[in-house]
TrEMBL record:
Domain DSBA-like thioredoxin, residue spans: 8-209
InterPro entries noted in UniProt: DSBA-like_thioredoxin_dom, GST_Kappa/NadH, Thioredoxin-like_sf
Gene3D superfamilies recorded: Glutaredoxin (3.40.30.10)
Protein name: DSBA-like thioredoxin domain-containing protein
Domain of life: Eukaryota
SUPFAM superfamilies: Thioredoxin-like
Length: 241
Protein backbone atom coordinates (compact mmCIF):
# COMPACT_ATOMS: atom_id res chain seq x y z
CA UNK A 1 0.00 0.00 0.00
CA UNK A 2 1.45 3.44 -0.91
CA UNK A 3 2.65 5.80 1.80
CA UNK A 4 5.25 8.31 2.91
CA UNK A 5 7.55 9.13 5.79
CA UNK A 6 7.97 12.81 6.69
CA UNK A 7 11.14 13.08 8.77
CA UNK A 8 11.49 16.34 10.73
CA UNK A 9 15.16 16.73 11.67
CA UNK A 10 17.51 19.23 13.31
CA UNK A 11 21.32 19.02 13.29
CA UNK A 12 21.23 19.90 17.00
CA UNK A 13 19.74 16.44 17.63
CA UNK A 14 22.18 13.53 17.25
CA UNK A 15 19.28 11.10 16.99
CA UNK A 16 18.03 13.04 13.97
CA UNK A 17 21.34 12.02 12.37
CA UNK A 18 20.60 8.35 12.92
CA UNK A 19 17.13 8.78 11.43
CA UNK A 20 18.61 10.41 8.33
CA UNK A 21 21.24 7.68 8.00
CA UNK A 22 18.56 4.99 8.24
CA UNK A 23 16.18 6.57 5.74
CA UNK A 24 18.93 7.21 3.20
CA UNK A 25 20.23 3.67 3.61
CA UNK A 26 16.82 2.13 2.93
CA UNK A 27 15.37 4.67 0.52
CA UNK A 28 15.59 2.35 -2.49
CA UNK A 29 13.84 -0.47 -0.66
CA UNK A 30 11.18 1.90 0.65
CA UNK A 31 10.67 3.21 -2.88
CA UNK A 32 10.26 -0.35 -4.16
CA UNK A 33 7.30 -0.62 -1.76
CA UNK A 34 5.93 2.70 -3.09
CA UNK A 35 6.92 4.57 0.09
CA UNK A 36 8.23 8.11 -0.37
CA UNK A 37 10.54 9.84 2.08
CA UNK A 38 10.78 13.56 2.74
CA UNK A 39 13.47 15.14 4.95
CA UNK A 40 12.23 18.38 6.51
CA UNK A 41 14.47 20.83 8.43
CA UNK A 42 12.90 22.11 11.67
CA UNK A 43 14.13 24.14 14.63
CA UNK A 44 14.30 21.89 17.69
CA UNK A 45 14.70 24.88 20.00
CA UNK A 46 11.34 26.15 18.77
CA UNK A 47 9.73 22.75 19.30
CA UNK A 48 11.07 22.60 22.85
CA UNK A 49 9.88 26.13 23.58
CA UNK A 50 6.39 25.46 22.22
CA UNK A 51 5.95 22.23 24.17
CA UNK A 52 7.90 22.89 27.37
CA UNK A 53 10.38 20.14 26.57
CA UNK A 54 14.04 20.42 27.60
CA UNK A 55 17.27 19.11 26.05
CA UNK A 56 18.38 15.87 27.78
CA UNK A 57 21.74 17.45 28.64
CA UNK A 58 20.01 19.95 30.93
CA UNK A 59 18.64 17.15 33.14
CA UNK A 60 21.41 15.58 35.29
CA UNK A 61 20.20 11.98 35.14
CA UNK A 62 19.69 12.08 31.36
CA UNK A 63 22.99 13.88 30.86
CA UNK A 64 24.79 11.12 32.77
CA UNK A 65 23.12 8.36 30.77
CA UNK A 66 23.43 10.11 27.39
CA UNK A 67 27.02 9.12 26.47
CA UNK A 68 26.22 5.42 26.91
CA UNK A 69 23.17 5.62 24.66
CA UNK A 70 24.89 7.77 22.06
CA UNK A 71 27.86 5.39 21.78
CA UNK A 72 25.52 2.41 21.39
CA UNK A 73 23.53 4.18 18.68
CA UNK A 74 26.71 5.05 16.77
CA UNK A 75 27.65 1.37 16.80
CA UNK A 76 24.15 0.25 15.83
CA UNK A 77 23.87 2.64 12.87
CA UNK A 78 27.51 2.28 11.83
CA UNK A 79 28.47 5.95 12.05
CA UNK A 80 31.54 7.82 13.20
CA UNK A 81 31.88 8.48 16.93
CA UNK A 82 29.60 11.26 18.17
CA UNK A 83 30.00 13.05 21.49
CA UNK A 84 28.36 16.09 23.05
CA UNK A 85 30.19 19.32 22.10
CA UNK A 86 31.04 21.93 24.76
CA UNK A 87 28.61 24.46 23.23
CA UNK A 88 25.64 22.09 23.55
CA UNK A 89 22.72 22.67 23.42
CA UNK A 90 23.53 24.62 20.29
CA UNK A 91 21.43 27.27 18.59
CA UNK A 92 20.77 25.68 15.21
CA UNK A 93 18.85 28.47 13.49
CA UNK A 94 21.57 29.29 10.94
CA UNK A 95 22.31 25.73 9.78
CA UNK A 96 18.62 24.81 9.67
CA UNK A 97 17.79 27.92 7.63
CA UNK A 98 20.63 27.06 5.27
CA UNK A 99 19.18 23.60 4.82
CA UNK A 100 15.80 25.12 3.96
CA UNK A 101 17.54 27.10 1.22
CA UNK A 102 19.45 24.10 -0.12
CA UNK A 103 16.36 21.91 -0.12
CA UNK A 104 14.44 24.52 -2.11
CA UNK A 105 17.18 25.25 -4.66
CA UNK A 106 18.97 21.94 -5.19
CA UNK A 107 18.24 18.27 -5.82
CA UNK A 108 17.98 15.74 -3.02
CA UNK A 109 21.37 14.35 -4.12
CA UNK A 110 22.90 17.63 -2.93
CA UNK A 111 20.59 18.43 -0.03
CA UNK A 112 20.90 15.19 1.90
CA UNK A 113 24.71 14.69 1.83
CA UNK A 114 25.19 18.30 2.93
CA UNK A 115 22.64 17.91 5.73
CA UNK A 116 24.21 14.62 6.86
CA UNK A 117 27.64 16.23 7.10
CA UNK A 118 26.42 18.89 9.55
CA UNK A 119 26.08 16.32 12.35
CA UNK A 120 29.68 15.21 11.80
CA UNK A 121 30.85 18.79 12.18
CA UNK A 122 28.81 19.38 15.32
CA UNK A 123 29.09 16.06 17.18
CA UNK A 124 32.37 14.64 15.87
CA UNK A 125 34.47 17.71 15.08
CA UNK A 126 32.73 19.87 17.74
CA UNK A 127 32.41 22.90 15.49
CA UNK A 128 29.72 25.44 16.37
CA UNK A 129 27.72 25.96 13.18
CA UNK A 130 25.87 28.90 14.69
CA UNK A 131 28.93 30.89 13.58
CA UNK A 132 28.65 31.93 9.90
CA UNK A 133 32.35 31.33 9.14
CA UNK A 134 32.12 27.79 10.50
CA UNK A 135 28.89 27.16 8.61
CA UNK A 136 30.53 28.26 5.38
CA UNK A 137 33.39 25.79 5.88
CA UNK A 138 30.96 22.97 6.57
CA UNK A 139 28.93 23.73 3.44
CA UNK A 140 32.07 23.80 1.30
CA UNK A 141 33.56 20.66 2.82
CA UNK A 142 31.99 18.02 0.58
CA UNK A 143 32.35 19.83 -2.73
CA UNK A 144 28.65 19.69 -3.63
CA UNK A 145 28.44 23.48 -3.69
CA UNK A 146 30.82 26.10 -5.06
CA UNK A 147 31.95 29.03 -2.94
CA UNK A 148 29.60 31.36 -4.82
CA UNK A 149 26.71 28.99 -4.20
CA UNK A 150 27.55 28.74 -0.50
CA UNK A 151 27.70 32.53 -0.21
CA UNK A 152 24.28 32.71 -1.84
CA UNK A 153 22.90 30.11 0.59
CA UNK A 154 24.21 32.03 3.58
CA UNK A 155 22.77 35.30 2.28
CA UNK A 156 19.38 33.77 1.61
CA UNK A 157 19.36 32.16 5.05
CA UNK A 158 19.05 35.63 6.55
CA UNK A 159 16.03 36.65 4.50
CA UNK A 160 12.50 36.96 5.83
CA UNK A 161 11.23 34.31 3.42
CA UNK A 162 13.64 31.62 4.60
CA UNK A 163 13.16 32.46 8.26
CA UNK A 164 9.43 32.14 7.71
CA UNK A 165 9.90 28.78 5.98
CA UNK A 166 11.78 27.28 8.92
CA UNK A 167 9.21 28.75 11.32
CA UNK A 168 6.39 27.21 9.27
CA UNK A 169 8.10 23.82 9.14
CA UNK A 170 8.46 23.93 12.91
CA UNK A 171 4.96 25.20 13.58
CA UNK A 172 3.41 22.51 11.43
CA UNK A 173 5.52 19.84 13.07
CA UNK A 174 4.21 20.88 16.50
CA UNK A 175 0.63 21.91 15.77
CA UNK A 176 -0.32 19.42 13.05
CA UNK A 177 1.93 16.45 13.78
CA UNK A 178 2.14 16.70 17.58
CA UNK A 179 5.92 16.97 17.90
CA UNK A 180 7.71 17.48 21.20
CA UNK A 181 11.21 16.58 20.01
CA UNK A 182 13.31 15.34 17.09
CA UNK A 183 13.56 13.25 15.06
CA UNK A 184 9.80 13.42 14.56
CA UNK A 185 8.41 11.08 11.93
CA UNK A 186 4.95 11.49 10.43
CA UNK A 187 3.81 8.25 8.85
CA UNK A 188 1.12 8.37 6.17
CA UNK A 189 -0.48 5.40 4.43
CA UNK A 190 -2.81 5.80 1.47
CA UNK A 191 -4.94 3.50 -0.63
CA UNK A 192 -4.28 2.95 -4.33
CA UNK A 193 -6.47 5.94 -5.14
CA UNK A 194 -4.36 8.25 -2.99
CA UNK A 195 -6.87 8.54 -0.15
CA UNK A 196 -5.24 8.79 3.28
CA UNK A 197 -6.13 5.79 5.41
CA UNK A 198 -3.62 6.23 8.24
CA UNK A 199 -1.52 9.08 9.67
CA UNK A 200 0.43 8.65 12.91
CA UNK A 201 3.53 10.07 14.58
CA UNK A 202 6.62 8.11 15.58
CA UNK A 203 9.27 9.71 17.79
CA UNK A 204 12.94 8.79 17.74
CA UNK A 205 15.43 6.86 15.62
CA UNK A 206 14.99 3.42 17.21
CA UNK A 207 11.34 2.64 16.45
CA UNK A 208 11.53 1.51 12.86
CA UNK A 209 9.54 -1.64 13.66
CA UNK A 210 6.57 0.64 14.41
CA UNK A 211 7.10 2.56 11.18
CA UNK A 212 7.20 -0.58 9.09
CA UNK A 213 4.19 -2.11 10.81
CA UNK A 214 2.19 1.06 10.20
CA UNK A 215 3.14 0.91 6.52
CA UNK A 216 2.50 -2.86 6.22
CA UNK A 217 6.09 -3.50 5.15
CA UNK A 218 7.92 -6.83 5.55
CA UNK A 219 10.88 -6.64 7.95
CA UNK A 220 12.93 -8.62 10.47
CA UNK A 221 12.46 -7.44 14.04
CA UNK A 222 14.84 -8.13 16.92
CA UNK A 223 14.50 -11.80 17.80
CA UNK A 224 16.11 -13.61 20.71
CA UNK A 225 17.36 -17.03 19.64
CA UNK A 226 16.92 -20.19 21.67
CA UNK A 227 20.00 -21.71 23.23
CA UNK A 228 21.43 -24.45 21.09
CA UNK A 229 21.99 -27.37 23.45
CA UNK A 230 24.57 -29.02 21.22
CA UNK A 231 26.72 -25.90 21.08
CA UNK A 232 26.24 -25.32 24.78
CA UNK A 233 27.36 -28.87 25.57
CA UNK A 234 30.42 -28.51 23.35
CA UNK A 235 31.38 -25.27 25.09
CA UNK A 236 31.10 -26.97 28.47
CA UNK A 237 33.30 -29.87 27.28
CA UNK A 238 35.90 -27.48 25.88
CA UNK A 239 35.95 -25.59 29.16
CA UNK A 240 36.86 -28.80 31.03
CA UNK A 241 39.93 -29.49 28.86
Amino acid sequence: MPGKVLAHLDCASPYSYFALIHLRRYRAILASHNIKTDIIPVFLGGINHATGNKPPSTLPAKAKYGPYDLARACEQFGTCRLTTPPFFPMVSLLPQRCMCVIKAKYAVETFEPVFERLWVWVFNKHVDLAQPANMKEALLDGGELSENQVDEVLNLAGTKEVKSQLNENTRRCVEEYGAFGAPWLWIVKTDQGGKEVLAEPVFGSDRWMYVYKLLDLPFHDVKLLKRQEENASRQVSDAKL
